Every structure is written in structure tokens, then in C-alpha cells.
Amino acid sequence: MHRINTKIFRNILQDHSEPLETSEILKTGGLVVFPTETVYGLGANALDSSAVDKIFKAKGRPGDNPLIVHLYDLTQISTVVSHIPQVALKLFETFSPGPLTIVLPKSKNLPGNVTAGLPTVAVRVPSHPIARLLLKESGLPIAAPSANRSGRPSPTTFAMALEEMDGRVDAIIDGGDSEVGLESTVISVSEKEIRILRPGAVTEEMLKTAVGPEMIITAAAQDKSRPASPGMKYTHYKPKAEVYLCRDIQSAAFDSRFSHLTLGILTLDKTFPMAHGSMQIIEFSDLDDYAKGLYKAMIELDRGGCAVILAQAVEEKGIGRAIMNRLTRASGGKEIK
Ligand code: TXA
Ligand code: MG
Questions:
Q1: Which is the most buried residue in 3, 33, 198, 263, by most CB within 10 A?
Q2: For residues 68 and 113, is the Cβ–Cβ distance under 8 A?
């Protein structure tokens, strides 16, 4: 790819010219990497199809994987969506701004490449103050996938965003570390049912509480041959090291088959023994901390030269479902019981 000169913005919430300059880049068809509460996004004007094309090029993303459109609030939604069902409205009112994305029928004037030719568009209202500033200042709907090159973990820190996108975009905004650390919950809705296409920080339990017991909530099968969401058929979140999901992290870590390797460990286990040999241990304090630090940890262990990463499995409830979903994909389903 032809390298472009990437401008870095570090002070957007305090400065007067930075909001203007970054939104001007968007308005004139450029690409801006910006922080959100989930992960960093790679944004372009959703109504400008040639700007949207640049997103696919910068990421090396397959053209059949649609993007999420970010809005400042729901007053703008009719520019991208043709109809909004009651359930969706209620869910947006409950969880937005925040990490919930809803797939809705697309409007005619939204360019086809945003949705990869699908009749539906994924929409979310982010809560991060910098994302909100950019949306408000530009007045645009912003199409933005995660700001990683295709197939790599999503950036959750400025350093990771820079590593992924320097030289490929017009601007990168420094917003520190992402609060959530995993991508938004993606759902589709019908009158009776909510389908979770990608689990995230708005959990199944939270959705259930919001809509009441009459609505059925289903988790889409993570089946690559019949994907409910185009993104699910691609290998995602993949570090260079080979990842194994481990039910019992201590016994896996000291299994003789790994004894000759540089081993990375991701664990919640406070009784995990001190590192020895070439073992590199990253310990998380709780599930939220695991979610927040997961991608950064995978990159760090890669950089540390780990051939194998052993990641502790967690219970599939709350944010645990999102963690397990990403770990299952990073490991390609490889598991040590
Ligand atoms: O937290 C997030 O959602 C981040 C930040 C930047 O907002 N964005 C993000 O975008 O994760 P991306 O492109 O990496 O993931 C979007 C997912 C993909 O799995 C895609 O297939 C799915 O949403 N998706 C988008 N439009 C869809 C549609 N019309 N129907 C079904 N799935 C859709
Ligand atoms: Mg992504």
C-alpha cells in the first residue's frame, strides 16, 4: 500500500483547532482513527462511498464484510436507516450511548459498500467523549470498523492503533486506553426475538432485563459455514502465537509438552506460581480487567516471542461470553481440558 502521511492528534478534548481539523479530514473524504469505549475505530464519512472504499483498503478487509455506522444520537438515524422497530428504539434508549450495535434495514442513500451490499446496516451510538466530539463536530454518520489490519486483534491503546494504522490513514487521535477492550455487542431484532450476533459488554442478561420475559433472546451459532453476521466467517483476533483455551490453567502451564517453549500465560488465578524458565505471565484482577486487557496482552506476548499462549477459560455468563467468544476465535477452537 502507498504510504500516506499520518497526522497525530494528542489533545483533542482541550484544544480548539484539533476537533475542527479532524472533522474537516472526515468531511473531505479522509480516514481518521479515533478512540471509542470498546476499541479504536477506523472512521470515514459513511455517506461518501469512495471514503468508505479507503477503509477496506487500509484494513485489507474483504469487501463482503460490512461496517458499523456510528451516530451522535438517534436524531440522525433516518439518514442511514429506513425503519426502526419499537424494540430497537427501546434498546437504544436503554443502552445508548454505549457498546450496543443494532442491525436495521438500511436507507437508500447509504452507499452499498458500507453494508457490503446487504439490505441492513449495523448502527451504534458510542459513549467515548472523543468519538462523540468527532461525531458532533463533523455532523456526519461515521462508518468505522475496528482499526486493526484485517485478522489482527483490535487496538485498545493508542500505541496499538499507531502500530496498525500509521502510514495508512490521514489522522490518528490519541485517546488513551479503551475502557471496555472488546468490540460492541451486535444484535439483530424482530418482533419476538433478539439475536446476539457478537457478544460484548451489553450482556445477554442486561438485554433480557431491558426487554422483559416475553422476548426470546438467542445467541447466533458461531458456525463459520452459515454465518449470521458476515464477520463471523473470518478468522479474527489472531495473534502470531498459537493460542489454547485452558480449563485448568495451572496444569496446562506445567504440561511437559510446553516445557521447551516460550510460553505466554493469561490468567485470573491469583495462586498461579511465579514465572520460571521462559514463561511470561499476565494476570488479570477480574473479568472486566481480562476483557479490557486481552488484546493488548496478546500483542505483548507476541512481541515477547511466545510461541504459545495459554489463556484461562472463564464461565460463559455476563462479559465472560464475550471473552470466551474472542478466545475461541483466537485459538481456532483449540482447547486443553
Ligand atoms: O465496538 C465496535 O463495534 C467497534 C468500534 C470501532 O465501534 N467496531 C467494530 O467494527 O468492531 P468491526 O467492523 O470490526 O465489526 C463489525 C461487525 C462485523 O462482525 C460485521 O460482520 C458485523 O458487525 N456487521 C456489520 N454490519 C452487519 C449487518 N448488516 N448484518 C450483520 N452483521 C453486520
Ligand atoms: Mg474488527
A1: 33
A2: no
**What is the residue-level pLDDT of the chain in tens, covering all 337 positions?**
789 999 999 999 999 999 999 999 999 999 999 999 999 999 999 999 999 999 999 999 998 999 999 999 999 999 999 999 999 999 999 999 999 999 999 999 999 999 999 999 999 999 999 999 999 999 999 999 999 999 889 999 999 999 999 999 999 999 999 999 999 999 999 999 999 999 999 999 999 999 999 999 998 776 555 566 776 666 666 788 999 999 999 999 999 999 899 999 999 999 999 877 789 999 999 999 999 999 999 999 999 999 999 999 999 999 999 999 999 999 999 999 8
Ligand 1 atom 24: residue of nearest CA:
66
From the CA of 43, give the closest atom in ligand 1.
6
Starting at the edge strand that comes first in sequence, how are the strands of the sheet with 216-219 ordered? 7-9, 171-173, 32-34, 41-45, 142-143, 68-70, 120-124, 100-105, 185-189, 193-198, 216-219
Cell triple for 272:
498461579
Cα 213 to ligand 2 centroid, rounded to whole Å: 32
This prediction has a pTM of 0.96
| Residues near ion ligand 2 (Cβ under 5 Å) | 146
Tell me the CA–centroid distance for residue 186 and ligand 2, in Å.
12
